[in-house]
Design brief:
The protein is mainly α. It is built from eleven helices and no strands. It is elongated and about 75 Å long.
């Protein structure tokens, strides 16, 4: 069975059809084939998560290495900003940012909004890992051999942290998807994009649960759960690589 992605547009199918052979996921009140909406919207939701995750972990990694390796005033400043940022209710800040951009928000802009706070936790956790590694013997040998700070970071510290950074990235992607879905359910996302979160917004806007249109909310909910479950298992696998003690205990 082939699905036309154009059926994700409004008025492309009969409205409010329950799941059937012609429309396996049913249709919504706007006349959209929900299977087409899921096929079009899932990559958009994942794009938001991956863009925000990469930006957050990328910035967090740079700041963490600078703070932990060079210490001093930079460490105090970066650690202080990260700690203060983590005490502020993140969703509230994201809501304020999204509200100020409402009306012009695109999928990529949504990712940047989420990424604006996505660097805080990685900065804190990666910094702790670098602080531990910088005291290892091989790092001291590298210093005594005349290697520069950036060279030690890229050739001695970074390779040892790659599994941990990968696990941190997956966690950041999960958190970014959760944050974006939360904002979109409130109507603060890209209003014209068929993301999973915006689909749930229209579910709420049209009172689909009250009216018994269960197929409208079931499809995006199940797919969101599957995405999080897949990312969870990926995180578990990466954690076992990053932490040998987990492999021994298993």
């Amino acid at each position: 069975m082939l699905v036309d992605i154009e059926d994700a547009r409004p008025l492309s199918a009969p409205a409010l059809r329950a799941p059937s052979w012609d429309y396996p996921f049913g249709t919504d009140r706007q006349g959209r084939d929900l299977l087409a909406v899921m096929i079009a919207g899932t990559p958009l939701t994942l794009r938001i998560g991956f863009i925000a995750g990469f930006l957050g972990v990328g910035l967090g990694t740079v700041l963490a290495f600078i703070a932990a390796y060079y210490r001093g005033v930079l460490d105090t400043l970066i650690r202080g900003v990260a700690d203060i940022g983590l005490t502020v209710p993140g969703l509230l800040v994201l809501i304020i940012i999204a509200v100020s951009l409402k009306g012009t928000l695109t999928v990529n802009q949504m990712a940047i909004v989420v990424a604006s706070l996505a660097w805080l936790y990685p900065t804190r956790t990666i910094r702790a890992q670098v602080l531990s590694l910088r005291e290892r013997g091989y790092v001291e040998v590298a210093r005594l051999s005349g290697m520069s700070g950036p060279a030690i970071i890229f050739f001695e510290l970074m390779p040892n942290l790659l599994p941990y950074l990968a696990a941190t990235l997956v966690n950041a992607v999960s958190a970014a998807i959760l944050a974006s879905v939360g904002l979109e359910v409130l109507g603060l996302g890209p209003i014209d994009a068929p993301t999973l979160g915006m689909t749930l917004y229209w579910v709420n806007f049209n009172a689909a649960m009250i009216n018994g249109w269960w197929w409208w909310w079931a499809a995006p909910t199940v797919i969101i759960l599957m995405v999080f479950l897949g990312l969870f298992f990926l995180t578990v696998g990466l954690d076992e690589i990053a932490n040998p003690r987990l492999r021994r205990s298993a």
